[in-house]
Amino acid sequence: MAKTIYLTKSDFKKARECQTKLYYKKNKYPSRLDDDPYLAFLADGGFMVETMSRALFPEGDTIGDWANPEKAFEATQKAVNSGDGTWFEPTVIHDSFLIRIDILRRKGKTLELIEVKSSSIEPVDDVSSPFRGKRGGITSKWRPYLEDVTFQALVLENAFPGFKVIPYLCVVDKTKEAGPASTYDRFRMTPPPEGQPSWRAEFEYVGNESDLQDDNLLSFVNVTEEAEEIRDEVDEARHELAKSLYKGRVKKIATAPRYQCRNCEYRLKDKNAGKKSGFEECWGPLAKQEPHILDLFRVDLLGGKARDIPEEMAARGDVRFSAIPPNAFGEGVTAERQKVQIANREWAAPVLKATLLSHPYPLHFIDFEGSRIALPYHEKMRPYEQVGFQWSCHTIREPGGPIEHSEWLDNDHAFPNFAFATSLKDLLGTDGTVYIWSPYELTMLRDVSDQMVKYGHSDPELSRWLNDFETSRGERVIDLCAMARKYYFHPEMKGSVSIKAVFPAVWRNNRAVRKLSCFDGASKGSEDPYKSLPALPVGDDEEVVREGTGAIRVYQDMMFGLAGQDPEKRAAYRKLLLQYCHLDTAAMVAIWWHWTQPKPKESPLRRLFRFPWS
Question: pTM for the full model?
Fold first, then answer.
């Protein structure tokens, strides 16, 4: 007899994005999300929020045995039928549907189903729903969460027909302030029990659980009304999906190629060449056509709201740039940028160099590392409030002058933002030009300005400087990412203007930038300096930080985790953070240099194959 293939709540959520993804998920196709550090970071935050929520129910019991769902469901049935109680991770099965509920409570003939999310709300009053927009409809942000809890409620109702089910969303409340019982350092990651495979991160609460009753950052919101509103739609969708799971096999539900496929996790990068690819199965031979329509900058805007140009092109059997209908382009900067990319050659508008050369010295290239997490690092902070823990700055004080480097990294367990901003003010002063890449730096300093008021931090000089910095965007503070979006393109960037796309393209195609003094020998021989950042020994392992999420995790462990108790590990983590942030601002210098310097001389043969400047 074929083994039952269950439709789980994670299956349902994935299939609501795209029905074809259910087939790829069930058959374990390789996905770009498999080792995504950002998703792992978010998951850890979610598990900590879940640990906080469980700590609010000290009477609760965990129902495990996840490897044997049928046996786990029997344990759930026995627990529920034995009387009132609270259970964590109980398994519930009905027909071909399987759920594991975050928290389940029985009160008489009522079952409270609590789905825990690390997403946040900002309640305004006791009447309006935080999950609805101004016109009263469920917002697109919250709809997947509400569909998830509705799916679970339907399965639970069917499995226990004698009970009334009340669904709740447990979410982070951004209006609450952290007390000593609810800060980040109250949670510790723990290894799985011996003999049990770790299917996810596990955390324990190391504070006083009785204090947490009054000092927690969560809100439990009854979503019965929202669940009833979408109940019929969710019920119909889950049964339709369940039809594709039959006699131990998964039937693929075909979906037409469309522009949303551009970010599909089953569209693998070159490093996964040779592995089975869901994207290639969906798109067939069209998947390998180059340059591919899905790599076009803002392809979602092509053709306007009424048309899906990638879908039209796929139906005609040609998704190359050359097949884009002439009437698909709109007007304005985005359309011009798309046409530049279609030319598929390096391009820089003359205004780019002229503008950069007009900026007054000294030139400062800055990059920040910061964190917004659900559980604050410090008391009195609110969930997802900004913390700036590091900056790097490369400075050129005069034309042709040397490249200087300055940096700052938090080394104190106190709230760091005011020291962060003061040290930056002392370096940048009020003269010259400050280059950033994206508005993140402006946003962080705006947050620091607001925090000065919130926390009563009196420093008139710093306050004036922050205000001047904010109002000087476009004058003294220049966003190089915005300039790249308007005035620069290289084919290797494809549709991206991320510094992680622009810098490697410049690095690989203008070897002269490698001679800049801001690059060390370890990076000069690599075709992608970010991938060549050296690993450092940390205990028995070697670690490396190559992206912002990794920087946050290392900072957290260094300041609030076990590494903070080991001087050698702490020193190694500091070095990891400093070398990563240094590279970001060095990359900005390299891009600026490439944009402002004369073209390197080329041999006649190379000139035949180069991408000319327009």
Answer: 0.89
